[in-house]
Amino acid sequence: MHDGCHGWAQRISPPVPDACDCPRERPAASMEGMNGNVIEVTGLTVRCGGTEVLREVSFAVAAGRVYAVLGRHGSGKTTLLEAVAGLRRPMSGRVRVRGADPYESARDAPVAAVWSDGGLFPGLTPREIVDTWRRWTCDPLDRDEALRLVGLTGAADVPFERLTAGQRRRLDLALALVGRSDVLLLDEPTSGLDEADRCAIWTVLRTLAAAGTTVLLATRDAAEAACADQVGVLDEARLPVRRATGSMAA
pLDDT grade, residue 234 (50/70/90)? Predict the structure, then answer.
């Protein structure tokens, strides 16, 4: 694993639940080791049926940075994430994660993903759910560490049915962290959540980015997109607008 599996968790400090404002400056630690791009998308074109969902999309994300793809419903944001995750084959163009093609060689381009529909785990607690996930993962992150990183230690034994929407979303994020990947994809991570839950999610994302994780997320919320380090606007299958925001917050 890049940078060493066991050092990965040690570099991450506990999240701070009430840190909800966009910092004016990024932590110095988040700038370390940024000698190249972790995610590179060049001229990506994807068709679904006879429809061109993505057309010649290009962008790059460096280590420890958060990149937001902003677009309306149906603009192709999820398809773009699926291509980066190696779940869709490009018609043309290329996708690289740490230099490897995620579609052709998923083992060489491991990513963690949190999809918009999330998971349903009736009758189980977060502790049991993470334990189950770990059994199917090679060299998994420690259960208690995964729950701590997303602020669910206090809810570890609460039945899934009693978790709030925000806690369920953080549980999805905990499961994504179990595999120790330092590339994280998120589809509409705070959609439908209240302000407190949005703050909690973004606190986790800041903490991960400061430790070197590369984050690519899709959103319909312009205010949320402005919290990222960089934002690309996906419109009519293209990504014509790309800019640095200079800050990240909830």
Answer: very high
Whether the predicted model's global pTM rises above the 0.85 cut: no
- Do 19 and 206 form a contact (C-beta atoms < 8 A)? yes
Beta bridge partners of 214: 183
Between CA 157 and CA 105, with CA 187 as vertex, the angle to 5 degrees is: 100
- Measured between alpha carbons, how far is 170 from 185 in angstroms, rounded to an integer? 14
- Condensed to tens digits (0 to 9), the pLDDT of residues 10-49 reads 344 333 333 455 443 443 333 333 448 999 999 999 998 8
At position 108, the amino acid (one-letter code) is D
Phi, psi (5° rounding) for residue 167?
-65, -40
For the beta carbon of residue 132, count every other beta carbon within 10 angstroms: 12
Instruction: Specify whether the CB–CB gap between 242 and 231 falls below 8 A.
Output: yes
227 CB contacts (<8 Å, ≥6 apart)?
22, 66, 68, 202, 245, 247, 248, 249, 250
The predicted structure's pLDDT at residue 33: 35
Mean pLDDT of 202-215: 94
